[in-house]
Write a structure and sequence with these properties.
The chain is mostly helical. The chain contains eleven helices and no strands.
Length: 268
């Protein structure tokens, strides 16, 4: 089940982030060499695991056949996939702001670096626990409901940020964003996998990764420009508008596709 695959990938990615940030604090007290040496050892262990366990019988031939079919195919991705890629870009454009300009915003309001760091610890814990719980309940829920519901929560968190002044305000906003992230982030690639071309799954997931990287790259620049020439409130509201715009567009396009499929079936 592709949904299960992407959920597990998302879960263990965040487990790594939480354990890594906890571990590096202890390792760094003994010098930077130990930090980098440990990271190198982890990559060596992973490489050994790849060599020993990633040799799936028949996978090479299957991949070659899929690549050949994809090369001959004139298939064009459904328009909904492009909308979901835009949604992915918007999510990570907003998410990277928490790692950049919001840290400055919080310290400017008199909050400490420790306060900011604690938010990420809480974020990781909530994601790990929440993902384990949600995996049991989301199997029968549609991609549209989970992705667009999560994106809406994600967008609402930026409305809270517009009026955040105390640590509690930022904590509430970040918890809302975290729940939205839990619902939307792992489900978007699963949704694209479900509606995409079976012979171009790798290429489509490559587009997802590209949009994530593009959002992370552009986010700090966009945030800086908006703050220099506008305000934090304007920045947060623009992210809210961008997310809700892609959510509404995704809803409309998906409904239109379903109506088209129903008409096609009834005509047969």
């Amino acid at each position: 089940d592709s949904r299960q695959v992407f959920n597990m990938q998302y879960l263990f990615m965040n487990v790594g982030v939480v354990l890594g940030t906890l571990t590096v604090g202890f390792l760094f007290d003994n010098g930077a060499k130990l930090v980098f040496g440990t990271a190198t050892a982890m990559y060596v262990i992973f490489s050994v695991l790849v060599i020993l366990t990633f040799n799936v019988p028949g996978m090479t031939k299957q991949a070659a056949r899929s690549a050949a079919k994809a090369a001959r195919s004139t298939f064009k991705p459904p328009f909904l996939i492009y909308i979901l890629l835009g949604l992915t870009f918007s999510l990570y454009l907003g998410y990277i702001l928490w790692e950049t300009v919001i840290a400055t915003h919080m310290t400017a309001l008199g909050l400490t670096t420790q306060d900011y760091s604690m938010l990420w610890t809480i974020n990781g814990i909530v994601i790990i626990i929440g993902q384990v719980i949600l995996n049991r309940f989301l199997a029968d829920v549609s991609f549209k409901l989970t992705v667009l519901g999560g994106t809406t929560l994600f967008a609402i968190s930026f409305i809270f940020l517009m009026f955040a002044r105390t640590y509690t305000d930022f904590l509430v906003a970040f918890l809302i964003l975290t729940v939205g992230e839990l619902l939307a982030s792992p489900q978007i690639p699963a949704w694209i996998d479900a509606i995409g071309n079976p012979n171009a799954k790798g290429q489509e997931q490559g587009y997802v990764t590209m949009m994530i990287s593009f959002g992370r790259a552009l986010g700090p620049f966009y945030g800086g420009v908006m703050i220099d020439h506008g305000s934090y409130k304007l920045l947060f509201f623009s992210i809210f508008g961008l997310l809700m715009g892609f959510s509404i567009l995704s809803w409309l396009v998906d409904n239109r596709l379903k109506m088209a499929h129903k008409k096609a079936r009834s005509s047969q």
